[in-house]
Design brief:
CATH class of the largest domain: Alpha Beta
Number of domains: 3
Number of helices: 14
Number of strands: 14
Helix content: 25-40%
Distance between the termini: 31 Å
Oligomer: single chain
Length: 400
């Protein structure tokens, strides 16, 4: 599963990406600072379930801070997008090609209205961020439509002549966009398209199909960045009113990056996603008056209001939009592995995952030789069709 961070240039996209991953990326106040996609590891936040047993997890991947465990997810920060990208404008072709691999999108917009359609800095309030949401929707829809229509007449005619099932044929053809046969079938049914005569589908019907498939394969959450700038909150409210189908999160990526870097240096104690931090003894001696004032500004004007939003937007993208769940392998009699590490592993599983799916995730042999699973909390045995719940701890019992 890959989280894609997208948006036009200069809206704070790379700042949000760096804040979420602490990856070394170029951050500059000009369009197209990102030329090639940056890749990194972000972390979604869950409860440290070992605390229920009076213990603390020892993650093999990720980390624990206080009561929370941070589980790694792959993230990419792709080149900035401008209107006309699907026609090759800006870095459009590269942007869209890089985007294929993403399972969910975080669309970063400058909520202050301080970045124009070309990605140039202007006076805050001079640009309407509503246009950013509209143009990204359009670019993605037209990209999908272009792929769908490529060779459409010949393709649809062959499907009819050979009496193939259009959903299966399209699912295979569009698999590079992570489109499945089931998605195509659902979209065709929702739009009431004539399955027997795909060659008769109009341009409008093809656009509607492209849009439907885009929504299924590239669900999107909107990160309203620069929320701490004057006028941004008014735009935030307008955006939420106009686009009720999206989740909007107010963000201050710059503030989050400052906090995470200060925490990394040992200057402050800060748990991402929390609304407070504390200056350490080390930090008291390292910080000058200007730096203390900057941290105080973040505390009063960002954290105490809504928080920086960066952790929240990542969590909601993975757990709410994609519906993934965090599952822990553990023993019914003990949580430690052979080296004494408590619940060292955590796996992010897609919605509707079963105990058998989890067994295969751990090892192919566990799946093939599955006998039962044991819910570590209840000590109850469950079968292979048992649907998993977020934060379940399971022991897999398999034969040899």
């Amino acid at each position: 599963m890959i989280v894609g961070v997208v948006g036009k240039p200069n809206v704070g996209k790379s700042t949000l990406f760096k804040a979420a991953t602490l990856a070394e990326v170029e951050i500059a106040n000009y369009p197209f600072a990102t030329i090639k996609p940056n890749t990194g590891v972000g972390y979604v936040k869950v409860n440290d379930v070992a605390r229920e047993f009076g213990k603390v997890s020892n993650p093999r991947n990720g980390y624990v801070l206080k009561e929370s465990r941070f589980v790694p997810v792959q993230a990419i920060d792709v080149a900035g997008l401008v209107p006309g990208a699907h026609e090759g404008l800006g870095l459009g072709n590269q942007f869209l090609d890089d985007l294929r691999q993403a399972d969910v999108l975080i669309h970063v917009v400058d909520c202050s209205g301080g970045t124009n359609e070309k990605g140039e800095s202007i006076e805050p309030g001079s640009y309407d961020p509503v246009k950013d949401v509209e143009f990204l929707e359009l670019e993605l829809d037209m990209w999908y439509l272009g792929i769908l229509k490529k060779g459409w007449e010949k393709f649809s005619r062959i499907v009819m002549q050979e009496k193939k099932e259009i959903d299966k044929a399209l699912g295979k053809q569009l698999s590079g966009l992570k489109i499945t046969e089931e998605m195509v079938e659902d979209s065709i049914n929702e739009l009431e398209l004539d399955k027997e005569k795909p060659s008769s589908w109009t341009n409008e019907e093809l656009l509607n199909l492209a849009q439907s498939l885009r929504k299924k394969t590239k669900p999107m959450i909107i990160a309203c960045n620069k929320i701490d700038v004057n006028g941004a909150m008014e735009n935030f409210v307008r955006l939420k009113d106009k686009f009720s189908e999206y989740i909007f999160i107010g963000c201050s990526a710059e503030s989050e990056l400052a906090l995470r870097e200060a925490a990394k240096m040992g200057v402050i104690e800060y748990v991402p996603g929390e609304k407070s931090f504390s200056i350490t003894e080390t930090g008291e001696g390292m910080l000058n008056e200007k730096q203390k004032n900057a941290l105080n500004f973040i505390s009063e004007n960002v954290l105490k209001k809504e928080g920086t939003g960066v952790q929240q937007v990542l969590d909601k993208a993975v757990f709410e939009l994609l519906g993934y769940i965090a599952i822990f392998p553990g023993g019914a009699s003990k949580l430690e592995d052979k080296d004494g590490n408590v619940l060292p592993d955590c796996f992010l599983m897609p919605p509707d995952s079963t105990a058998l799916d989890f067994a295969f995730k751990l090892h192919t042999d566990f799946g093939k030789n599955f006998i039962r699973a044991i819910d570590v909390r209840t000590k109850m045995a469950v079968g292979k069709e048992h649907k998993l719940k977020h934060l379940d701890i399971l022991e897999i019992v398999a034969g040899r």
